[in-house]
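---------- Forwarded message ----------

FYI, see the DUF2851 family protein record below. Original note from H. follows.
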Amino acid sequence: MQEDFLHYLWKFKKFDFSKAITTSNSNITILDIGTHNHLSGPDFFNAKIEIDHQLWAGNVEIHLKSSDWYLHRHETDPNYDNVILHVVWEDDSEVFRKDNSAIPTLELKELVHPDSLDKYRSLLLNGSKKWINCEKDFHLFDDFSMNNWLERVYFERLEKKSIKIMEMLKSTENNWEEVLFKLLFRNFGLKVNTDAFESIANSIDFKVIQKLGDSSFKMEALIFGQAGLLNENIDQSYFASLKSEYQFLQQKFNLDNSSVLLPQYFRLRPDNFPTIRLSQLAELYSNIPHLFSEIIKSNSKEEFYRLFSSSTTEFWETHYTFKKEHKCRKKKLTQSFIDLLIINTIVPFKYCYLKETGDMETSETLNIVEQIKPEKNSMVENFNTLRSKTATNSYHSQALVELKTEYCDKNACLQCGLGVKLIHGLV
């Protein structure tokens, strides 16, 4: 049994109140269970309880065994001085406050209805043998319950991404344009080159980007040079021109790339080679000088497709590397790649910006991701197998990834709105 189950029993009052007495046979009347605390400190704050007709207001602590109070060293922690009731599954030890007064204890194991225990055991036992604990019942969830919970989980995911964005904002002295620049670089690198591309962006003062914005050649020389892609001696005219320009820019702006991670080509399709992605970034910033403003005012998938319709510079239409030429072909950003940018960069960025500027409208955020097809990965496919059409757009697929990694994989069924419905017998 997990302690979370006891939290569930207390929070939803899933035990026989009429038989609730302390282990010292004092009558208990629970007026307010308190506020569930998910951080450090007692489990429920500001509860109100009558014990033998005396009103107590304070905190409630929950453990599997009474002796866990000492195991967790609560007797030495002043945060637990105001605990008015100790709720346990099994009372195996008397517990005292620092002033040696006994803390009233409520033992639950004889008060819980067998049906609740059966539902709990059915859901969480033998979990290691299942992909998710509720897989045999997952198809039973109605659309309203599913969509309601996925919306909440999706915004939990956005909030987590906002933490990194706010850290970046602080490090750039509240320069939203620079934060966007770094986020785009990071996501253009995809999984293989995420860290390398981020290190390139971090090595460039954004003011230099703004000064070179009218020249794709200078922009490409700057980015390729900082990426360490111009370090070789290659007998190729365009390479030589870029290298010469970068050496000039390096002197002019006192550029340093000693901390930059070298981008990798291993296991990448040619269209994802760092040369191609970095050239597309150079074109993007040279063609759209006010990219930040354009992103903030764009609110549809089609607008973002037009905004990110950039290609490479002309040289890369016939090359993937500096050394080998191929038949001419435009290398524009594909819609599927732009979809990933919208999902992983644009929407979290806009969400954070609107929230910070006090112009928060969640429906705008949802409208964008609802216009994009769901991502294709094994998690989403498995959920769709368990329940038909669970993911019909990228908002669903992002929420399902969060659901699997933060709830299912951690056996956090009792914090999951769907898991609670199962144990409540509402499915």
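H. also flagged this: The chain has a mean pLDDT of 93.
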